[in-house]
């Protein structure tokens, strides 16, 4: 059986052998972790962070519906699976070395030492003296894992309907190790470079949305246009469902980043909701002014843009500022979408205009409206730091993502052939179909 598998698919054979070895050595390397539980940890904080972790996990299936409803009928299953499979691949990678690269002992403020928490070594129920705000370190690692899961899934919207499944899995691994983990370390680790510079990113505007959006632009440029572009979403109810799940899960995404059941979590919760609501309404009015009609799709995209934009600011700004962030970011992203549609770039589901530009807008506006150190308080240092960081990170992520796509393509060709693209990825990649024959 094993020999047959290797003959039919060497990549699958290697992966299964790797998982078999992992299943044998993982208990030896990780089960000896300190399991002591600190009795003085507030149970309310633990309950809230378990809930928040579950909410963030729900966002990835929500993204599956959000993206799946926008593509053609021949590509719904493949598009949804590209998001959903990240729950498996990135979670195992996070256990192996991802958490250590993101939150291990700092190497120059750029990336964590892979040996610190290798195979979740020493990641137990006791709190860490510098990470997790006094939570059990295992709970902090679980919460952060959900962020790592959804980030590469966001990128898939840019190359929907034209990539091989196995090449996507390989790129996902590369992206998580070489882009996401260093960014998370630089931004959220106490010794991280951006953290030390004072960059504010409450819940992932830079780490998640700018990185995914810029990588999406690199993907669209590297992979090229589809042979036949799908002009109309095939299942808008899926998009509405996905938006609802994303909106609901985003409360865990942002409020959970307070790492406690406290006032900051409450503030982040309400900021998240108001920014999304304002952006949704703004997008609808912009659509009406531009097209003479409002659309359910526009409402969904606007809501998500608001959620993206408030993410870096959620715990740092007041309620009024969250409305402004939602309003301004909807206008900026809508204009970016207009420019993208007039270009030759085939970012299938508009990941860069919505997540990339929305995240950039949120990062800048965080520096404007932050109640401590923001431009509205008369301080100019934070806005300068954010603008410089935005340029450096955007350029670096773009170049590195493009390089990772090039390497992936050399190892496992990324793009399907014309016949497979015409058949649709549901059939050519997975031998499945939305409608039974």
List the helices and strands and how they pair.
Blueprint: H1 2-8, H2 10-30, H3 43-68, H4 76-84, H5 86-103, E1 106-107, E2 111-112, H6 137-155, H7 165-188, H8 193-197, H9 205-223, H10 236-255, H11 263-291, H12 296-310, H13 319-341, H14 351-369, H15 381-411, H16 418-423, H17 425-430
Helix pairs in contact: 1-2, 3-4, 3-6, 3-10, 5-6, 5-7, 6-7, 6-9, 7-9, 7-15, 9-14, 9-15, 10-11, 10-12, 11-12, 11-13, 12-13, 12-14, 13-14, 14-15
Number of extended strands: 2
What low-confidence regions span 5 or more consecutive residues with pLDDT below 50?
A: none
The total count of helices amounts to 17
- What is the structural class? mainly alpha
Provide a descriptive summary of the structure in words.
The protein is mainly α and 437 residues long. The mean pLDDT is 93. Strands 1-2 form a two-stranded antiparallel sheet. The protein is globular, with a radius of gyration of 21 Å. The protein contains 17 helices and two strands.
């Amino acid at each position: 059986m094993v020999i047959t598998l290797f003959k039919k698919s060497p990549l699958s054979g290697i992966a299964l052998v790797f998982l078999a070895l992992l299943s044998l050595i993982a208990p030896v390397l990780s089960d000896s972790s300190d399991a002591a539980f600190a009795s003085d940890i507030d149970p309310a904080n633990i309950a809230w962070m378990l809930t928040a972790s579950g909410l963030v996990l729900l966002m990835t299936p929500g993204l599956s519906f959000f993206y799946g409803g926008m593509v053609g009928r021949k590509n719904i299953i493949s598009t949804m699976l590209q998001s959903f499979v990240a729950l498996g691949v990135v979670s195992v990678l996070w256990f192996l070395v991802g958490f250590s690269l993101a939150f291990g002992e700092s190497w120059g403020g750029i990336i964590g030492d892979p040996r610190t928490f290798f195979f979740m070594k020493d990641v137990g129920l006791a709190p860490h003296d510098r990470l997790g705000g006094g939570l059990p370190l295992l709970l902090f690692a679980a919460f952060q894992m959900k962020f790592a899961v959804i980030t590469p899934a966001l990128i898939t919207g840019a190359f929907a309907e034209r990539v091989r499944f196995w090449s996507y899995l390989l790129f996902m691994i590369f992206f998580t190790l070489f882009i996401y983990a260093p960014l998370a370390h630089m931004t959220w680790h106490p010794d991280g470079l951006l953290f030390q510079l004072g960059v504010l990113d409450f819940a992932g505007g830079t780490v998640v949305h700018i990185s995914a959006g810029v990588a999406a632009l690199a993907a669209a440029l590297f992979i090229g246009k589809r042979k036949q572009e799908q002009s109309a979403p095939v299942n808008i109810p899926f998009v509405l469902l996905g938006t609802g799940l994303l909106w609901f899960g985003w409360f865990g995404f942002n409020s959970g980043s307070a790492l406690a059941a406290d006032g900051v979590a409450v503030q982040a919760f309400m900021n998240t909701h108001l920014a999304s609501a304002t952006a949704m309404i703004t997008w609808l009015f912009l659509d009406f002014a531009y097209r003479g009609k409002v659309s359910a799709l526009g409402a969904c995209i606007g809501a998500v843009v608001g959620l993206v934009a408030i993410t870096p600011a959620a715990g740092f700004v007041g309620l009024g500022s969250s409305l402004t962030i939602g309003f301004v970011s909807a206008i900026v992203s809508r204009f970016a979408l207009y420019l993208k549609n007039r270009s030759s770039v085939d970012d299938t589901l508009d990941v860069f205009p919505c997540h990339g530009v929305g995240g950039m807008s949120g990062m800048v506006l965080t520096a404007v409206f932050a109640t401590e150190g923001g431009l509205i308080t008369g301080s100019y240092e934070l806005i300068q730091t954010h603008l410089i960081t935005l340029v450096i990170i955007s350029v670096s992520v773009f170049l590195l993502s493009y390089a990772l796509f090039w390497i992936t393509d050399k190892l496992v060709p990324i793009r399907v052939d014309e016949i497979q693209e015409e058949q649709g990825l549901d059939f050519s990649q997975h031998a499945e179909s939305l409608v039974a024959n």
